[in-house]
Amino acid sequence: MNKGRLEAFSDGVLAIILTIMVLELKVPEEGTLSALQPLLPKILSYILSFIFIGIYWNNHHHLWQAAKDVTGPILWANLHLLFWLSLIPFVTGWMGEHFSAVPVAFYGGVLWFSGVAYYLMVRTMLAHYGKHSLLASAIGNNKKEMASIYIYTAAILLAFVAAWISALLYVVVAIMWLVPDSRIETKLKK
User: What angle do CA 170, 63, 77 make, to 5 degrees?
Assistant: First the structure.
């Protein structure tokens, strides 16, 4: 199968996820700045989730630049990733509405499963393309991916101590990934 269909489908799903998230933000009744204050937790949750979706979209784009074709297992691995990402609007809304232990932990859980799903998709692609492929040489080690999973794990547990610590850890992971992963781009330019 041509990789273009998978990329187009994934782009469409991510666009819908972003649209759903923004539609959850309700316009205030009043036209004053103070009317935005009660919406601040929702707005901050939305911004964080928008950044995470953007990070996944960006890295997904870079990853698929090194791909040539798609197999059944790769399709399922990609769908697995999209499934977890599709839950981000739900946990974003819940965390924005109720900034407490359980919603913040569930938010981290969805991020954790999304990170694992991305990792599994990459490993499925590497199994298909082989250890001497352009993708394998571009990916190299997975330290950043594993660090993210460990931080998410800590954040989920710490949500029951202090939700703000977990939120701070989610921001740390977002900052880690904010600069696009250039490993693949660098290899493609050679």
Answer: 80
